[in-house]
Amino acid sequence: MTRRENSGRRRSAFREQRTSMLVVCGAEATEPAYFEGLKRARRNPAITIKIKAKRGDPEAVVKYAAGMRDRAEGTHDEVWCVVDVDEFDLDKAATTARRLQVNLAISNPCFEFWLLLHFEACSAPLTCYGDVAKRLIKHVPGFSKSALRFADYESGVGSAVQRAKKHDVELGFEHGHNPSTGVWALVEKIS
What span, in angstroms and rounded, lies between the C-alpha atoms of 151 and 58? Predict the structure, then answer.
C-alpha cells in the first residue's frame, strides 16, 4: 500500500460568500407566503433571506425597505420590494427606488400574474386582479389570496421565469407594460 506523499501544498479553505437579502412585499399574505415557500423549497445556502410585509402604496413600501436597511446598516447586501401596479402611481415609486438603491419586482397588473405564468404563457392585456384570478383558478381551483400553498406552484417556477423573461421588459419598468412582471429576477437570485 502506498502512502500519499504530502506535497506540502494545502488547498486553501473555501467558503462561498453568503448574500443577505431583504425582501419587502407590498401585501400581507400572498407574496410573503410565496417567498417563504420558495425559500424553504430551495434552501440555497448562499442566500439568507428576510421577508417582511408592508401593506401600502409602492413608494411607501420602498421607503420602509430602505429604512429597514439603513437601521441595520451592513446587514443586507440587497434590498427588494415586491409591488403591484393595481391602482398605484409606480413612476414615483420607481424613481424613489432608484434614488434609494432598492430593487423593484413589479407585477402588472398584480402579483397573481406571476403565479399564472407558472401554468401558462399570457401576453393578452389583463386589466385587473379579477382578470388574472379567473385564469389562475382554472389551474389552482382552490386559489385564495390569503392561503397560498407554495406546493401548488413549485413545479412551475422555472417555466414562470422563462415565460416572464419573454415579455422582454426592462426591470423596474414593468408598470408601463401590461401584462408583465419582474419577479423572475428576484426568484432567480433566490434559486
Answer: 28
* Dist CA 34 CA 185 (whole Å): 15
> Count of CB atoms within 10 A of residue 102's CB?
24
In angstroms, rounded to a whole number, what is the distance separating the alpha carbons of residues 184 and 114? 8
Which residue matches cell numbers 432598492? 102
Predicted TM-score (pTM) of this structure: 0.89
Smallest CA-to-CA distance from 176 within 123, 109, 118, 80 is with 109
Neighbouring residues of 30: CB distance < 8 A, sequence distance ≥ 6: 111, 112, 115, 145, 146, 148
Count of residues in the chain: 191
> pLDDT tens digits for 138-164?
999 989 989 999 999 999 999 999 999
Cell numbers standing for residue 149: 400553498
Residues 6+ apart with CB under 8 A from 138: none
The sign of the CA dihedral 19, 16, 159, 172 is positive
Rounded to 10 deg, the angle between the 183-190 and 157-165 helix axes is 140
Which helix (H) or strand (E) covers residue 23, if one does?
A: strand 19-25
